[in-house]
Amino acid sequence: VIVTPLGEKTLEDRLRKRIAFESAMDLIGQLLRAVAHEMRGDAEAAAADWRAALRANPECRPARRMPWISC
Question: How far apart are CA 7 and CA 10, in angstroms?
Fold first, then answer.
């Protein structure tokens, strides 16, 4: 739950912040899933999740740092 004092932000501002937060959480989920796949030895599934994270956010620095993923 994200709480802001009444009247300080518009509904649009609050919705944008929430959407950005949810998008960030989705990206984190993809990256964690990729790490879990890699730790289990499933490089193909890991690469698929890393690529999905990069498609969602091409500027994603953690995904760009993985040398075993070709972008």
Answer: 7
Global pTM exceeds 0.85: no
φ, ψ at 9 (rounded to 5°)? -135, 155
Q: What is the pLDDT of residues 28-57, one digit of tens each?
A: 888 899 889 989 999 999 989 888 888 887
Assess contact for 19 and 38: CB atoms under 8 A. no
Cβ-count burial 39-69 (b if 16+ within 10 Å, e if not): eeeeeeebbbbbbbbbeeeeebeebeebeeb
34 C-beta neighbours (distance < 10 Å), count = 25
Q: How far is CA 41 from CA 33, 36, 53, in A?
A: 12, 9, 19
